[in-house]
Amino acid sequence: MAQTQLAILLTSAALIIIGLYSAIFIDNIIKKIIGISFIEEGANLFIVAIGYKAGGVVPILMPGMDTSWFAANAAYPLPFGLVLTSIVIGASTLAVMLALVMVLYRRYGTLSTKVMLADTSKQEEYNE
Amino acid sequence: MNELIPLMVIVPLMAALLISAFSKLNKVTKIFAFVVAICLPLIPLLSNYGLHYFGGYEPMLDNVTGIMYHPAITYSFTFLQQIIICAVGLLTFLVIFIYLTKYKKVSGPYLFLLFLGTAAVTAMILTDDIFHMFVFFEILALAQVGIVAASSIDFSYEMALKYMILGSIGSPIMLLGIGFLLALTGSVNVTDIALAVHTGLIDATSPVFLLSLALIFFGWLYASGLPPFHTIKSGIYSKAEPHGAALLQSFTVVSMISIVIIMFRIYSSLPIFEVLVVFFSILAMILGVSLALTQTDFRRMIGFLAVGELGFIGLGIGLGTNFSITAGLFQALNEIIITALLFIGFGAVVHATNEVDTRKLGGILAYHPKVSIMLLIGGLAMAGVPPLSGFQSKLMLVQASLSCGFPEISILAIMVSIATFVVFVKTYYTMFLKPKPNDLDLEGKEVPKSMVFAMGVLLIIIILLGIFPDVVTSGISNFVGGIL
Amino acid sequence: MKLYDQIFDVVKQFRKLFSPGPVTNADVSGSITAEIFLIVSLVLSAILLRHVNVLLAGLVTLIVAILLISNIPLIPKFKIEQEDSLEKMIFYAVLVLALLVTFMYWGGNLV
Q1: Rounded Cα gap, residues B417 and B413, in angstroms
Q2: Measured between alpha carbons, how far is A121 from A64 in angstroms, rounded to an integer?
Q3: What is the rounded CA–CA span in Å between residue B339 and residue B162?
Q4: In chain C, residues 64-103 whose CB comes closer than 8 Å to chain B
Q5: Domain boundary assignment for chain B
Q6: DSSP B135-201
Q7: Which residues are bridge partners to B129 per DSSP?
Q8: C84, C87, C90 member nearest A114 (Cβ)
Q9: In Å, how far are B123, B235, C36 from B225, measured between CA atoms?
Q10: How far apart are CA B313 and CA B255, in angstroms?
């Protein structure tokens, strides 16, 4: 079933492109962060798709299984392990970003990136 | 005693967790942080060179193909790792010492971030596993953001959020590149991947392999702050507390060299890799120094200079010979120490004057002669004036590019050094030598003794490395011979 | 004469670069140094193309030199493109990513 894998790969490509698009063109900071986290999800999905094996079994060696049959049919476990770690990191990054947005929203009263994250070097350089 | 190798990561990591858990006990936290910080530079000095396999999984020999596989996460500890970890550990110790003496009541979370960052870069330079490196790269990004956000400087939250948003574009792209490598080779161990590439198991000219280079390279640009990320990198340096910035730049340098060494081991057979590295390094040098010349905020100026100096490291790696890579890595070591000295020194000026605009400063030399002289020597070392350490590494780089047949790059490197010198002389004149403005009050404001002590220690290392560069370069040269 | 006026005009334009706040001698001389440094170093790095093709290198160097010198002052333009706003940072980051991926996928073997 290579079609399943192809569908997953196309989805991940679509997610990454949507993420890059929203990083440039969306002004609302929360929406922008949601969009950017799509990139992370796309990369995770891609790595999951690598481990896909048509008709494969869960890579856990149960008692009574024939080892050579297992080696031929089990899915590749490494990508799943990696993705698990990567998801945890992505979640913590997202949490820190949203926490910073909360603090900045209280200060500026707006969620617009143009206002909140504009060029600040002029304002701070020479304040009498 | 190879048991000490994982301890280099575990000790700061555990210290970070314990300190944040018991941060209510002020005195205990202080003593504990101080003791751990002393241990950090000592552990790599005591440890023997060697490999450490986590979980004890030794490499396996595939009897059919005759290829060695590395199932465990492997830490390899050689002279380069020893010297870099020792430098970062010493810097962490000095920064924590400055922090502990500056504040009566210490903040547990801030110490947590400092130790976490140190643990992350130590793991990055030690590891032989590309995904393991990515994980610690992300942890490092979180620690860096925390250090910036914890400072009391205006607009530090904004800068931290900008860095984080750019990071969440850069890191997943790098993860995607690692995914491509995993799909091609089925492994995340760098030795296995490099072997597969060099023995021809992977077609090195296939577009997928080239694409993985492009994606990991983009992540490297973000990690090291080369263009297009030079503005944000200099921005976070200027928004962190000065001692934090001194540590942040060392994190940047170490993550830069650890990623580029891994990329070099995998992609060195592709000529395009070296072209890319040299291209972005030259761009960083030109943009970093020319922007530093126009800054009026001196913290931002040092930030741009630090980014410009990173170009020299990239140049050394990109030229791709044993001598040039040795020069690049030696420059990395020098930059960790010199830039830290400059950040701490200018931080002392901020502490004494409460002012960051060069136009409102002047005449500090008469009030703080010790800091001024040490800063002068540090700046000269960065510009590459003999007999200081920056001179030795830059001379090696110029010689390396001449012997590779690129005299233009030599001229460019010398020009960038001169421009760095101009930046420094201009700033030094406006801050220390020109008459003091009337509304600037300098009376009775002391520079903390711990800052002077830290600058003195770093200065001694700069002078020693400048006089005896062979102590370091011969060892680095052996390491480079191993990866070529 | 036109070029002379243009160079003289550069100093006036630097005043805007440092506003608000006074413009000191050191800042202006630093900016002029940056201007010259930028032109010379970009022209110098264009010469590196001679390792690909000598004729191309000569042509590109000439074009770059003429373009840069006729467009002084460059530093204000450069600084506006590299300011701290997130929009410009992300724009350039994504642009570089797109160029890298495109160039490597279709042209990575040309070098």
Answers
A1: 6
A2: 68
A3: 23
A4: 75, 78-79, 82-84, 86, 89-90, 92-97, 100-101, 103
A5: 1-269, 270-484
A6: HHHHHHHHHHHHHHHTS-STTHHHHHHHHHHHHHHHHHHHHHHHHHHHHHHS--BHHHHHHHHHTTS
A7: B189
A8: C87
A9: 20, 10, 24
A10: 12
B271: nearest Cα among B319, B202, B222: B319
Q: How far apart are the first and last CA of chain C?
A: 44
Report the complex ipTM: 0.92
Q: Which of A23, A118, A126 sits opposite C20 (nearest CB)?
A: A126
Output the CA torsion C67→C69→C74→C75 (10° steps): 140
Mutate to test the interface with A, among B62, B130, B145, B168 (most CBs of A within 10 A): B168
Cβ neighbours of residue B472 closer than 8 Å, sequence gap 6 or more:
B83, B330, B333, B465
pLDDT (tens place) for every residue of chain B, 484 residues total = 578 898 999 999 999 999 988 888 888 888 999 999 999 999 999 998 988 898 888 888 888 877 888 888 899 999 999 999 999 999 999 999 999 998 888 888 899 999 999 999 999 999 999 999 999 999 999 999 999 998 888 888 999 999 999 999 999 999 999 999 999 988 889 998 998 898 888 888 888 999 999 999 999 999 999 988 999 999 999 989 888 999 999 999 999 999 999 999 999 888 889 999 999 999 999 999 998 988 888 888 999 999 999 999 999 999 989 999 999 999 999 999 999 999 999 988 888 888 888 888 888 888 888 899 999 999 999 988 888 998 999 999 999 999 988 898 999 999 999 999 999 998 898 888 888 888 777 777 788 889 999 999 999 999 999 999 998 999 999 999 988 7
**Size of chain A in residues:** 128
Q: Which of A20, A43, A89 sits opposite B135 (nearest CB)?
A: A89
Q: ω before B228 within 30° of 0 (cis)?
A: yes
Half-sphere exposure of B307 (CA within 13 A, CB side): 33
Eight-class DSSP state of B481: H
Which residues of B fall within a CB distance of 8 Å from C94? 169
Q: What is the least distance, in Å, from the CA of B108 to any CA of chain A?
A: 18
Q: Which residues contact B255 (CB under 8 A, 6 or more apart)?
A: B121, B124, B137, B140, B223, B224
User: Based on C-alpha coordinates, what's the Rg of chain A?
Assistant: 22
Q: Which residues face B61 on adjacent strands?
A: B68
**How far is B253 from B316, CA to CA, in rounded Å?**
14
Per residue, what are the HEC states of chain A?
Answer: CHHHHHHHHHHHHHHHHHHHHHHHHCCEHHHHHHHHHHHHHHHHHHHHHHCCCCCCECCCCCCCCCHHHHHHHECCCHHHHHHHHHHHHHHHHHHHHHHHHHHHHHHHCCCEHHHHCCCCHHHHHCCC
In the structure encoding, which two tokens stand for residue B255, read together? 């993550």
- pTM reported for the whole predicted model: 0.94
Closest residue in C to B304 (Cα–Cα): C82
How many C-alpha atoms does B151 have within 13 Å on its Cβ side?
26
The secondary structure element, H or E, covering residue B51 is strand B50-53
Residue of C nearest to A115 (CA): C85
User: Quick one: closest CA in B to C103, which residue?
Assistant: B214
Q: Please name the residues in contact with B136: beta carbons below 8 A apart, sequence gap of 6 or more.
A: B119, B120, B121, B123, B124, B127
Dihedral of CA C90/C92/C93/C98: which sign? positive
Which chain B residues contact residue C42 at CB under 8 A?
286
* Dist CA B192 CA B71 (whole Å): 10
3-state secondary structure of B436: coil
Q: Which residue has the tokens 């980014």?
A: B307
Q: Is B357 on the interface with C (CB under 8 A)?
A: yes
